[in-house]
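Bit of a strange request maybe. I'm writing a small parser for structure token strings and I need a real example to test against, not something I typed by hand. Could someone generate the tokens for this chain?
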Amino acid sequence: MAVVKLEALSKRYGGNAEASVRSMTLTIADGEFMVLLGPSGCGKSTALRMIAGLEPISSGTVAIDGRVVNAVPAKDRDIAMVFQSYALYPHMTVRQNLAFGLKRRRMPAAEIEKRVASAADRLGLGPYLDRKPHALSGGQRQRVALGRAIVRSPKVFLFDEPLSNLDAALRVTTRNELIKQQHDLGTTTIYVTHDQVEAMTMGDRICIMNRGGVVQIGRPLDVYRAPADTFVARFLGSPPMNLMSGVLRRNGADHAVEVAGAVWPVTGFE
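Reply from user aminoacidic:
Good idea to test on real output. This should exercise your parser:
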């Protein structure tokens, strides 16, 4: 487990191009499940790839467990990433897929066998260890991808829209399973999605992004009940929050909003 800290993290493609990620500052606590939420093109996946070491950083820093890792190769960052596409080797069995990364690290065979057996038992993959990916359902493939991350015992899990290929019913089941695994393992997790339901039900906190910048960070219900601006109000929730034009009026120490001829008192306004 580890604290992940982003300081003024930015990414530009080309000298004069608009930043894909703009001065992103965010701290993910040890063991926290942080969701990066936003519409397509907001920069959330780019930010995740910079944390993973798959995308060069234009400016700013990424620190994992107190160590700045800007110049550290992805393989040495002690992270495990699960992709939308599963990224399984089609010619390998489930057992071989789970063990592949550990063998590359020259881990002892007994330890590999122990970790694979533990992950398979945790994820209910025991009956499928000798099958190849083409003989698995979408949900089973996603569990193998998760298992391949679990066996590494990384400091940080990174998820890039891992459930978007699943149907609605299977997405709910897999979502609940993923939450349980993260809680049991206690591993710091950063999860990218554009799905509000996933964000609201899975995250300890949500970081909402738009046009490359962070708009609001907070616990799911706090963000829902007190959106920072009209973008968050419109984006978060289904159906979205209704917005109406009005005039803010002040009467001594009291405030009220006039909308379509009706006057509504406002409390807690300064």
